[in-house]
User: Fold this.
Amino acid sequence: MKACRGEPVPYTPVWLMRQAGRYMKEYRDIRAKVSMIELCKNPDLATEVTVTARNRIGADAAIIFSDLPLILEPMGFKLTYDEGPQIHNPVRTLEDIDRVRAPDTNSEMSFMSESLRQTRSELPPDIPLLGFVGAPFTLASYMIEGGGSRNYEYTKKLMFNEPEAWHRLMEKVSAPIADYMNQQLASGAQAVQIFDSWAGCMTPSLYHRYVFPHVKGIIEKVSGGIVINFATGNPALLPLLDAAGGDVIGIDYRIDLDAARKILDGKPVQGNLDPCALLAERGPLLNEARKVLELAGDEPGHIFNLGHGILKETPVDNVIALVDFVHEESNT
Assistant:
């Protein structure tokens, strides 16, 4: 939490995106018995997965186990998981936008509040708990594409052809995101990360026109904790992420950390080891981690993380070695 505020720390803190997930046997054992949606909505299991992962790797923070598109269910979307989330009634017409519901996240996402409360009670007091949400562009793209996409054809088609309808949809998405962030902070999270997993398909000018005002509006409505603003795929978006707000800017692996810190002019940063480095042998892995620490420099306000989530093929022992190395290498 000190690093999030840009305060001096005795060593660089580290947690990893998707640190509770498919690379870990304990998680796979649970998933063999329940579906993804059942796991996310079961506070006992979500707590177990979250706490087990944090304890196993020795990270300095836990991030609650959940998934970005779950908030789309109470908005009226039919969500299933088949090699990733699938929306079976996507938005393809202007009339479809009208049917998007405004959910009451406190009641309709109450399982998240209970998961956070249980997890907070099971973690050591000095270990922060993070919540997270999908950014409005990523969630709107799920709504429109029906799942993952390479080119975001339907999303950009709506954006270009019907800009007023696009902004109306983004407003419908943004309001519950802000509510959900405040709900998580009120339920035991000390920080919430915004994940814009698909923003990299946007140029800065398109992002500024079609996304920026909505992200900025969300962050302005959040209070009571730290906000980490993270987008992947296009480092040219960093100045806009900074302008949109957030206490910490997450940096993906497509830019050197010293260059990112220069762009952000002193704002705390999180990142940014290439997740594929964790697939390497121990020596090359730790060399890459050392480079990240060196590029972060001596100024306070750095949280070590990956530039995106842990890959499912990652050896757990490599993750443990990475966390230990960051602590030892950065210890002052």
Observations:
- The two ends are 18 Å apart (CA to CA).
- The chain is about 45% helix and 10% strand.
- The chain has a mean pLDDT of 97.
